[in-house]
Automatic annotation (TrEMBL):
Pfam families cross-referenced by the UniProt entry: YfiO
Function: Part of the outer membrane protein assembly complex, which is involved in assembly and insertion of beta-barrel proteins into the outer membrane.
Keywords for the protein's UniProt record, in alphabetical order: Cell outer membrane, Lipoprotein, Membrane, Signal, TPR repeat
Start-end of each TPR repeat: 84-117
Subunit structure: Part of the Bam complex.
GO terms, biological process: Gram-negative-bacterium-type cell outer membrane assembly; protein insertion into membrane
Family: Belongs to the BamD family.
Name of the protein described by the UniProt record: Outer membrane protein assembly factor BamD
PROSITE patterns, A to Z: TPR
High-level lineage: Bacteria, Pseudomonadati, Pseudomonadota, Alphaproteobacteria, Acetobacterales
Residue ranges constituting the Outer membrane lipoprotein BamD-like domain according to the UniProt record: 46-239
Low complexity bias (residue ranges): 281-309
Chain positions covered by the region annotation Disordered: 281-329
Species for this entry: Acetobacter malorum
Subcellular location: Cell outer membrane
Length: 329
């Protein structure tokens, strides 16, 4: 290698070093003269301002902003007088946004920290609504329905005189009807698969555990179908009598009446479909117990039974080949 080539390489290296040094001096000079001064941190708003901003965001349906304002208030002013309201309203913001798990978590936090608050009843009720809004379709698992019922019952137990207790009871009835519908769905599937024992267990659970729901008439009629398929005529007659005396105007009794007539199992104990059954006076010694959903002895003429849940239809002859229960699907 020649001497001239070595000298040219050395000169290049020196130039690079000088350029780097100049750049560093320039940057340091900028910082010395105040060119790189950091921007001042923004001033944090007061607790009252943060809370009012959150309320304004709620009123304008900006739920994400509202929950953020309430969260900032809680993190920066943990001993403020607004802290309890901020916790409750943050849970409400999540509820309106549809973020039910986050709402439940926040409401549990409020309940744990303020169990004696005047807003405790509302917090329990709002938490129950979060579970209620997550109830799944009847074809899916109903664990959410059970959780909603438990939360609603807690509202009634803790605050029976509150304004939320009545609505909680109405929603409990809807939850029970939903659970009964699930049992009927499974029972119909078992019946279609000819697993009659499992089907009867499902129908009996509806009759015994969900007596106030609208699914009881169908459950009784389906039991008549199953017992007839099994050749258990006595049980079929008992289920039909219970159905007829409690729901004489129901379409399900018309279906059961038609099936029993086809098998020649009708007797004078069976009410005419569509005719409301009324108690007739009898001698005291002749009184017996009325039929129940569980199935007992045939019904006497005089008994105390529930009114038909629907308007009675006109008395008419029922033909088995025309009036049949809907096919199982």
């Amino acid at each position: 290698m020649s001497v001239s080539l070595i000298n040219s390489l050395s000169v290049r290296c020196r130039i690079r070093r000088l350029a780097s040094a100049g750049l560093l001096l320039g940057l340091s000079g900028c910082s010395l003269f105040g060119g790189g001064k950091p921007a001042p941190a923004p001033k944090l708003a007061s607790p009252e301002t943060l809370y009012n901003n959150g309320i304004d965001a709620l009123r304008t349906q900006r739920y994400t902003l509202a929950s953020a304002e309430f969260e900032v208030l809680q993190q920066n002013y943990p001993y403020s007088g607004y802290i309890a309201n901020a916790q409750l309203m943050e849970g409400y913001s999540y509820y309106l946004k549809g973020k039910y798990p986050e709402a439940v978590q926040q409401l549990n936090r409020f309940i744990g920290l303020h169990p004696t608050s005047a807003d405790a009843a509302y917090a329990y009720y709002l938490r129950a609504l979060c579970f209620y809004e997550q109830i799944a379709d009847v074809k899916r698992d109903q664990q959410g329905t059970v959780e909603a019922m438990d939360a609603l019952e807690e509202v009634i137990t803790r605050f029976p005189q509150s304004q939320y207790a009545r609505d909680a009871q109405l929603k409990i009835d809807l939850c029970r009807d939903h659970l009964a519908g699930k049992e009927m769905l499974v029972g119909r599937y078992y019946q279609q698969e000819r697993n009659y024992e499992a089907a009867i267990n499902r129908y009996q659970r509806v009759i015994q555990d969900f007596q106030t729901t609208n699914h009881v008439p169908e459950a009784l009629e389906r039991m008549v179908e199953v017992y007839l398929d099994l050749g258990l005529t006595d049980q079929a007659r008992k289920s039909g009598i219970v159905l007829g005396y409690n729901y004489p105007g129901s379409k399900w009794y018309r279906y059961a009446y038609s099936n029993l007539k086809r098998y020649k199992l009708l007797s004078s104990n069976f009410p005419i479909p569509g005719k409301v059954v009324t108690a007739q006076p009898t001698a005291p010694a002749a009184t017996t117990q009325p039929p129940t959903a569980a199935g007992t002895a045939p019904a006497p003429a005089a008994m105390d039974i529930k009114a038909a849940p629907v308007q009675p239809v006109k008395k008419q002859r029922i033909e088995p080949q025309v009036d049949q229960a809907p096919a199982l699907r």
